[in-house]
Specification:
- The complex is a heterodimer of chains A (about 375) and B (about 375).
- Chain A is built from 21 helices and 2 strands.
- With about 375 residues, chain A is mostly helical.
- Chain B is an alpha+beta fold and about 375 residues long.
- Chain B folds into 2 domains: about 200 residues; about 150 residues, no CATH class.
- Chain B contains 11 helices and 13 strands.
- Classes of the chains: A mainly alpha (about 375), B alpha+beta (about 375).
- β2 of chain A pairs antiparallel with β3 of chain B.
Chain lengths: ~375, ~375
């Protein structure tokens, strides 16, 4: 399929998704007055947040916006509830656009942009913050994470090295540096760096979780799946709400041939789309179909809304359904936005499934140019006929 | 500092922060405008989670909204809804009236389904605007579906773009011209159709004699042969295109794409067998039906909202024909001039047919 034909194909998919997502279901009237319409415990503001909202409404200045925006973002993370990101963005976008907006407001606004995968705009905002104050460790850490997601390993490495030199939390700065090194052809050195670091219980749990998750990923890329799984599991114990870690652990379990264990891990209440898609891949029978339908519904809704957040999951779901063309279109769109380990792997799988030489060439060129190493991807590409 | 550290670590755990799901932040607005003199009806399906911030529904603050609470909250819901949405026609506001509230399900959740009716001026285009419960949530979207007579229209509203304007009806001529271009474009980018046409063309400057290819006679003979074959192909694909576009016949995409690839492989093989050259006409006619369904699939991917059927169908068909004629006009003089050369019947025809037929086999494999 040529590029114009692919565009038509993607357009047709979007039109079809809109039709499905926007389709009206029948209205109904419950006969039981105690019929539960909705559980809004997650959505409703608690007293502390109501107080912040009241303060912000009374005087929507920079400080009140920063406090409320940060509270919304924290709630989004604690409850895994995306509506609070939208609320944070509404507050922070207005505050960040005012002349003299504080660094905190602008950095938090950049964080909301990251949620929307607006990585380029987020990075530009962080660039400006760091130009104003090169000692802003929070902005530097945030920019490093954006650069890692976008596959800018040289840029991330510079930021991570500065964090380390500035005396930040050592485990976080080291893991950041190791991740950047591993993306730029130094996977063995990066693994050795993290192996040599004595992670202490006294460090904050989130820092240890991040360190362990990165170390797990590097072990996985170095074909040491047992150590990877152990590290991911330990990271998840420390940060049970981190869906990215849960997804990574599930991927590693599936790759090792333990789908039942992965299914058990993924069977949580209110799973995210990333988890539901993986769960569908390792569940059986009716549960598999239910999860597939759930994930398809979410993806259709996302497409209808015009969001571009879950191309990776769309590609994974299409791969599971044996739809190579659809998978490769989504995987390539995803790879243009983010280039982390799961993005690399899904593009490799999709390119091979669709026999898409251009996609394969794109990935192989990127792997060669960056020096990014991953044992699973390399095995996949080596076992398939040359593109 | 402690909070900043927390955010920092959370961020480090997943910079691509879109792992969440159960994304509501979406409402569904269905608008029906059957005729200019009839009232406009609206159905607005709202997630309770999204409006609980602005409407007092959870009266006992227990975090669970029951149907009884919804019915009792109607006195708050009604003015809140009417505050959030504005409907106008021709620039003049319509009078909106709240009819009732029920429930509807979207993505596995119950939504409050509010029914409204609008008394509007008879002239002009409709416009929907207002805060639409989006002012406090940047991720909020309204998915709008409108029915205008037989037409389906759609739109997505956001806080950044909170107004939907009914598109004016395109003129028949503008629709026709647009779909002529779409038809031409589809053939030019659809290399499988080009391959099939080339396979029909290549032997047209030859004739079969004693199981061998000989050069054909005059240009008029060749032209007559090509016109007959292309006309048969056109009649067939126009028939199935019309049947598919009008919804008379519906076939899934995948088998059609497989059959199109097969038609190329078969046509390529047939060109290697001069004895079977008489089958070219039935082949063009038979596979023309299949290619028509392929055109219909392509057409279904084009946003045709607001376009009347006749200019759409006629325009697309004529566009396809123009593109085919362009290919014939470009190729025919060359192969006509080359028809007496030994290398044409012995080289260009078999090698070209093999190459295109092999491409058909590859596409067949890919599409299976």
């Amino acid at each position: 399929m040529g590029v114009p034909a692919r565009l038509l194909f993607v357009l047709a998919l979007a039109v079809a998704a809109y039709s499905r997502a926007a389709a009206a279901s029948d209205r109904f009237l419950p006969t039981d007055p105690h019929f539960v319409v909705a559980n809004v415990r997650q959505a409703a503001p608690d007293p502390a947040m109501r107080a912040l909202i009241a303060l912000w409404r009374a005087a929507p200045d920079d400080g009140a916006s920063a406090a409320l925006g940060a509270a919304f973002l924290k709630r989004a993370g604690d409850l895994r509830e995306p509506m609070f990101v939208g609320r944070a963005e509404a507050v922070l976008a207005a505050a960040a656009s005012k002349p003299g907006a504080s660094a905190v407001v602008r950095r938090l606004y950049a964080e909301t942009l990251q949620y929307r995968h607006e990585f380029k705009t987020a990075e530009s905002l962080l660039d400006a913050l760091l130009q104003e104050s090169s000692r802003d460790a929070a902005a530097r850490q945030q920019r490093a994470s954006v650069r890692l997601v976008r596959g800018d390993f040289a840029g991330a490495r510079a930021d991570c090295a500065q964090l380390l030199a500035a005396g930040g939390v050592q485990s976080v700065a080291l893991a950041c540096l190791a991740e950047a090194m591993a993306g730029a052809g130094q996977l063995p050195q990066a693994r050795a760096l993290l192996d040599a670091y004595p992670l202490r219980d006294g460090e904050p749990a989130e820092a240890r979780a991040y360190f362990l998750a990165v170390r797990g990923e590097l072990h996985e890329r170095g074909a040491d799946s047992d150590r990877a799984i152990a590290d991911y599991a330990a990271a998840l114990m420390l940060a049970p709400n981190a869906d990215a870690v849960r997804a990574a652990l599930a991927d590693a379990l599936i790759a090792r041939g333990s789908p039942a264990e992965a299914a058990e891990l993924l069977a949580i209440e209110r799973p995210s789309l990333a988890l539901a898609v993986r769960h569908a891949a390792c569940a059986q029978g009716a549960e598999r179909e239910r999860l597939r339908a759930l994930a398809t519904g979410w993806l259709d809704l996302e497409a209808a809304r015009g969001d571009a957040l879950h191309y990776r999951e769309a590609a994974l779901l299409a791969l599971e359904a044996g739809e190579g063309e659809r998978a490769v279109a989504a995987a390539r769109a995803n790879f243009r936005m983010q280039r982390e380990l799961p993005d690399v792997r899904v593009l490799a799988r999709a390119a091979l499934a669709a026999h898409d030489a251009a996609a394969r060439h794109e990935l192989e060129t990127w792997l060669r140019d960056t020096g990014f190493r991953d044992a699973v991807t390399e095995k996949l590409l080596a076992n398939a006929a040359p593109g | 500092m402690k909070r900043i550290l927390f955010v920092l670590f959370c961020l480090a755990l997943g910079a691509a922060r879109a792992a969440f799901a159960h994304s509501t932040s979406t409402s569904y607005l269905l608008l029906e405008a059957p005729a200019p003199d009839a009232p406009v009806t609206l159905r607005w399906d709202l997630a309770v989670q999204d409006i609980v911030w602005s409407v007092y529904i959870d009266q006992d603050y227990d975090g669970v909204v029951t149907w009884q609470e919804v019915t009792e909250a109607r006195r708050y819901l009604e003015p809140a809804v009417l505050r959030e949405i504005t409907l106008a026609r021709g620039g003049t506001a319509c009078t909106l009236r709240f009819r009732d509230v029920a429930l509807a399900e979207h993505t596995g959740q119950n939504f409050l389904s509010v029914s409204l009716v609008g008394e509007c001026p008879k002239e002009g285009l409709l416009a929907v605007s207002g805060s639409l419960f989006m002012s406090g949530d940047a991720s909020q979207r309204v998915l709008l579906s409108a029915t205008r007579g037989q037409e389906k229209l759609a739109g997505v509203l956001s806080a950044e773009s909170p107004t939907w304007l009914e598109p004016s009806r395109p003129s028949a001529w503008a629709s026709f011209a647009r779909f002529v271009r779409e038809g031409i474009w589809h053939v030019l980018i659809g290399y499988d159709h080009i391959a099939f046409i080339l396979l029909l063309l290549l032997p047209a400057v030859l004739r079969s004699e004693d199981g061998k290819w000989r050069s054909a006679g005059s240009l008029s003979q060749v032209a007559r042969d090509i016109v007959t074959i292309v006309t048969a192909f056109t009649i067939a694909h126009s028939t199935t295109l019309a049947l598919a576009v009008t919804g008379t016949v519906h076939l899934p995409t995948q088998p059609i794409e497989v059959a199109i690839a097969a038609s190329i492989a078969v046509a390529g093989g047939l060109n290697l067998l001069p004895k079977l050259s008489r089958l070219r006409l039935p082949l063009a006619f038979g596979f023309g039906f299949v290619h028509g369904f392929g055109f219909a699939n392509a057409l279904s991917g084009i946003d045709a909202a607001g376009t009347a059927l006749l200019p759409l169908l006629a325009g697309f068909n004529i566009g396809v024909e123009l593109a085919q004629l362009a290919i014939v006009s470009a190729v025919l003089p060359l192969i006509y001039l080359a028809r007496n050369r030994r290398w044409y019947a012995g080289g260009v025809l078999p090698l070209g047919s093999c190459a295109l037929g092999a491409a058909g086999l590859v596409w067949l494999w890919q599409r299976l």
